[in-house]
Amino acid sequence: MTRYEMTTTTRGRLLLAILFGLLFTTLLVLASKLNAYFPWKYDRFVYAVVGTVLAFLLTYAFLKWEKQDFPWIGMALKPNTFTHFVMGVIIGLLSAMAVMSFVSGYVHVVLVRNPDFQPVSFFLGCIIILLMALMEEVGFRGYPLYTLNRKSGVWTAQIVMAVLFAIYHVANGWTLQNALVGTGSWALIYGIVAIRTGGIAMSTGLHFAANLVQSSVGRGSFPILAMRQKGGDIPAMLDEIKYAGTLSQLIILFIGIGLTVAYARKKG
Hints:
mainly alpha
C-alpha cells in the first residue's frame, strides 16, 4: 500500500492507527525494563518521563511521515488549553469520587484518614500520575484517534482506540477483564472528550484526576483515605468490593456509549 493510499483511504487510516497503537505499546513495554535499574521509589517516575517523551517522539515521526504538524491533530497550546485542563480535573475528581462513594456505599464501608499517609510520596505520585496521564492521552487520544475520526467517523475511532488502550494495559500486566471493562470504559470517556474539545487538554485533566482519586483511596498507590467496614473485616469484603467496582465501570461504559451516540447524531 502506497503512502497516498495509507493516508487517504479508510483501510489505510485504520492500519496506521493500529500500527501506532501497537508500536507505542511495544515501546512502553521495553521502557518498563528500565525500572530494574532504579530504586523502587523512582522507577515509576523514570518510566513516566521516558514514556511521555516516547509518546511525543512517535507522534512526531508519524506526523513527519505525513508532512503534518501537531496542530493538525489538535495538539497545540491555545488560549483555552489551561481552562480545559482545569475543567477536566474538576470533572474527573467529581466523577471518580462519585464512583468511590457508590462502591463504599454498596459494601457498607467508611473512608477514614490513613495514619500512614506520606505527603512527600503523595506529591511525587501526583507528578507521576500527571505524566502518565499525558503520556497515555498523547499516545491514544492524539494522532490515531484524530486521524481515525476524520476518515472513519467517531464510532470506528472510539472502538479501535478503546481496544488498543485495553491491549496496552494487558501488556502491562492487567487481566483481560479489567482491561476491557475498566480501562476500555474510561477510554470511551476520554476519547469523546478529546474529540468534542478538539484537543487532549481536558481529557488529560480528566484522566489525571480519575487516576489520582483511585490511587488515593483504599489500596491505592499512596492512599490518603483508608477503607473501614462498619463492624466487619475489609478482606472478607474484597469480592463485594470487586463486584461493586465492576458494576460502576459498566455504568461508566454506558455513559461513554451514550455520549458517543449523542455526538454521532449531532454530527450526522
